Amino acid sequence: MSTGYATSTGDPAGDTRGSVPVVDAGGDVVRASVELEATLDAARAARVFLKTTLAAWELDGVTDVTTLLGNELVTNAVVHARTALRLAVSYRRSELTVEVWDHSAAAPVLGPAHLLEATRGRGLVLVESLADRWGVRSGDGQKIVWFALRVS
After folding, report:
1. Which of 28, 31, 101, 115 minimizes the number of CB atoms within 10 Å of its CB?
2. CATH of 6-150, one of 3.40.50.1370, 3.30.565.10, 3.30.70.1230, 3.30.750.200
């Protein structure tokens, strides 16, 4: 079974047309990813990529929350890691997983819950509140911050 990604270099202006999801040979998992630079346009490009990908996979029921949380993780990577990053999304059976890879080993910090009312510093609080699962993996000078949502 192939588990490769349909990868695009992604245009920071939001052109992710080259990121059409590819279904693996077994039809069990679909995956897509896009490479983004740490620019002010990265979050917008991430939102376009996620909306386009989820529409192609006919997962409209999770588009809003996935786009919100993906936007937060990409924004965190741009603001804190300040490195190129990769946004990856995969869907298997009844779970959608979104990962943001960056080239910083610094662990993200979950702020207090009252930050939901703030205009900054609430990204991981939203992820903690809305995702079914989330976490961080790190090693070799990079980290992956991810979340998963159940899809019915």
Report:
1. 28
2. 3.30.565.10
